[in-house]
Amino acid sequence: MKLAVDRTPRARSLFRLALFAGVLCLTSAVLVSAHTPAALGPLELFASGLAGPEDLAMSRDHGLLVSTSTGDVLAFDKLGSSSVLANVGGDALAGVTVLKNRIVLTAALSANRIWQIDREGNVSLFIDLPGGPNFIVESKHGAIFVSLSSAGEIVEISTGTPITVASGLSFPNGLAISGRGKNRNLYVAETLGNRVSVMTLDKSDNVGLPQLMAGGLPLADGIAFDRGRNLLVAGGGTFRAVPKGTAQPIAMIDDPLLDWPANLVFGRAHGFKRKQVFLANYGPAFGDGTTVVRYLHNHGGMNLIR
């Protein structure tokens, strides 16, 4: 039996419209899937037996760095073997970051100071900093921003003299910088505000007033952006994401290996994979955690090693 096909102009127009709508839907689906954050597998144990791991950073010289509650900064290779890069004298450590000049800075929140570690592992005091220094991030222009959790402030310390650039924050914690040119922003996790706020950064690294970026993030602690511009947030026993262009957090991973993660970092160092995310399990008693875990993400991380 031969089927009759309607070849009238109206039928052809309807067919073209349906075809266009189908292509548009497919394109939209591809674009959404290209940017939506997703875990490509379960968590894996990377390292155990640590003492209160809180923050992580990637170093060209030393691999994965992890700060601990005993004052050790540990260095891990891609296989999970570790060594002590430095000990700062017993201060419990919070944030750790690698500057453009490859100097490592690490914050001792309770001791109100920031230590620096050179490429050979030598330790010296960088700055005394009252107010509970917690997390450290460097801009591409060399500004060094530090969250002062107890003081509710963010300060800039590159000259050795702290300059307050934001105040009135609710226990500011993790920091991240995202964007290019005139569209750069400084993001801060406000732990006791259960939110992430955003501040503009001009070409001179002047900081604008904080505005709400996303709420509903219990005890938000560590933050990082993937290359799809999605914001990943660790804290409060959870690991969540805020997809690009939204303010609505979504759950990323629910896994028994997740033990109150404090911070995260992508594997952007020699020998590590850029789509691997490492999480420091700080523990529910804030320092009783012992492990670092990892998973495979569908995007690589932002380039924080310059």
Structural topology:
Layout lengths: L8 H27 L8 E4 L7 E5 L3 E5 L4 E5 L5 E6 L8 E3 L5 E5 L4 E5 L5 E6 L4 E6 L5 E5 L4 E4 L6 E4 L5 E7 L5 E7 L4 E7 L9 E4 L5 E6 L5 E5 L2 E5 L7 E2 L9 E6 L9 E6 L9 E6 L10
Antiparallel strand pairs: 1-24, 2-3, 3-4, 4-5, 6-7, 7-8, 8-9, 10-11, 11-12, 12-13, 14-15, 15-16, 16-17, 18-19, 19-20, 20-21, 22-23, 23-24
Q: How many domains?
A: 1
Indicate the CATH topology. Neuraminidase
**β-strand amount:** 35-45%
- Describe the largest sheet: 4 strands, antiparallel
- How much is the average pLDDT? 90
| Assigned CATH architecture | 6 Propeller
Low-confidence stretches: 17-33
The whole-angstrom Rg is 22 Å
Structural class: mainly beta
- In which range does the helix fraction lie? under 10%
Characterize the structure shown.
This protein has one domain: 6 Propeller (Neuraminidase). The termini are far apart. The protein contains 1 helix and 24 strands. The chain has 306 residues and is mainly β. The strands form 6 sheets. Strands 1-24-23-22 form a 4-stranded antiparallel beta sheet, with no helix packed on it. Strands 2-3-4-5 form a 4-stranded antiparallel beta sheet, with no helix packed on it. A hairpin with a 5-residue loop joins β4 and β5. The longest helix has 27 residues. About 6% of the residues have low confidence.
